[in-house]
Design brief:
By secondary structure, this protein is an alpha/beta fold. It has 9 helices and 13 strands.
Length: 319
């Protein structure tokens, strides 16, 4: 068994394969065993509907989890922002590796930055969260933009700009970094302008709750500070009763003084997609030392946001 290959379940997209390949290399190093990628097609990959219409939450995840539960693969790699907030019985989140850049970025024609876009600029994104914040920023700063709902992989989305159909698209920095296309970014959007999706930039490595040996091995990939941050972000999302297609942005930063970690700051925003109304709050406190403490950190900020009317800005809430 020692040298038997571990089977890693992954989506087939170029980004998923790149992410999974990086994790496979790391797992091989910590286990001394070869890792083979098992490609699995998910509903989110084959559906042509917009993510908000097909529910967003879990559409890229369910087929991978079913393969895990059936024993067809030993572990799976997900983009953490795609994971539903409820953890299913029988599976465990064995590792959350160190997070990539969580920011959103702009890929625009003529190397334009967001604030240099012409009046009436058409900006493509599949995320209501991005639409809500871009439109709110535009309203506050006198910019005239139109957000356009799009789908497709990175090539498809950037193609809309290259072919002249859109002036710009918004993508995740982490994804472009992982597939070696960061040089196409024309502007990094500050988190003060657009807060990322909860968990954005982080990966989740999931396996059977019964495989104690593999759980112990995968723990070597875990980054405790990233796990604390994304746990707080996802707890906030769950407490808002919002799915990952809802217009919710959240980011937990670790605040450090040199090499000494001091505190964690959690910022979150909920807004209407037209940018006309939003609730944005933040909280700062000691870095949560446990999973339960990180959950409470996010839940408390969500409670404050709900008290300020956040629920009414999310449209139909996901249960």
């Amino acid at each position: 068994m020692r040298n038997k290959a571990l089977r890693l379940g992954t989506r087939r997209s170029r980004l998923a394969m790149a992410q999974s390949g990086q994790v496979a290399d790391a797992v091989s190093q910590v286990t001394g065993r070869p890792v083979e990628l098992v490609e699995i097609t998910t509903y989110g990959d084959v559906s042509r509907e917009h993510l908000a219409q097909i529910g967003g939450t879990g559409v890229f995840v369910a087929a991978l989890r079913e393969a895990l539960l059936r024993g067809e693969v030993d572990f799976a790699v997900h983009s953490l922002k795609d994971l539903p907030t409820a953890q299913p019985d029988g599976l465990v989140l064995a590792a959350v590796p160190e997070r990539e850049d969580p920011r959103d970025v702009l890929v625009a024609r003529d190397a334009l930055k967001f604030t240099d876009l012409p009046r009436g600029a058409r900006i493509g994104t599949g995320a209501p969260r991005r639409m809500a914040q871009l439109n709110a920023y535009a309203r506050a700063h006198g910019l005239d933009i139109e957000t356009v709902a799009i789908r497709g992989n990175v090539d498809t989305r950037i193609g809309f700009v290259r072919e002249g159909g859109l002036d710009a698209v918004v993508l995740a920095a982490a994804g472009l970094n992982r597939i070696g296309r960061a040089d196409e970014v024309t502007d990094f959007l500050s988190v003060d302008t657009v807060l990322p999706a909860p968990g954005q930039g982080a990966l989740a490595v999931e396996c059977s709750a019964d495989d104690a040996e593999l759980i112990a091995a995968l723990a070597g990939l875990d980054d405790p500070l990233t796990r604390a941050a994304v746990t707080a972000e996802r707890s906030l999302l769950a407490a808002l009763e919002a799915g990952c297609s809802a217009p919710v942005g959240a980011l937990a930063d670790i605040l450090a003084d040199g090499q000494t970690v001091k505190e964690m700051r959690l910022r979150a925003v909920v807004g209407t997609t037209d940018g006309s109304a939003q609730v944005q709050l933040s909280t700062t406190g000691p870095v949560p030392p446990t999973h339960d403490a990180a959950m409470a950190f996010g839940r408390e900020l969500a409670t404050d946001m709900l008290a300020q009317g956040a629920a009414g800005l999310m449209g139909e809430r996901a249960h």
